[in-house]
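Dear colleague,

Thank you for sharing your sequence with our group. We've completed the structure prediction you requested, and as agreed, I am returning the results in plain text so they can be pasted directly into your records. Please verify that the sequence below matches your submission; if there's any discrepancy, let me know and we will rerun it promptly.
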Amino acid sequence: MGVSAGDHGGSEPAHEIIPLLGRTSSVSVQIGWGVTPLGALLAGFLLQELSPSAAMAVVASGMAVTAATATAVAPVRQAGRPQLSSAANAARSSS
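Please find the predicted structure tokens below.
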């Protein structure tokens, strides 16, 4: 059984199937690793200026604000979900 060039069949890597996936992934990794020293700098500053428990409270409140903001933004909340048709939305809301 042969596989045509247009039939991906799950054997090709995702970065070859989905355009720009490798680039967007590399940018997200670059940003993630790039801000790590800034987090260490901020932690050192907070620990120098505040007590350890107050520094942890500041960090925890920052994380809570970030989580609440990400949850409130519709594109982030719906990321990765398939778009439903209006008929499917109506059936879903009535049940």
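Summary note from our side: The helical segments are 14-17, 21-34, 36-49, 52-72, 74-77, 86-94.

Kind regards,
the structure core
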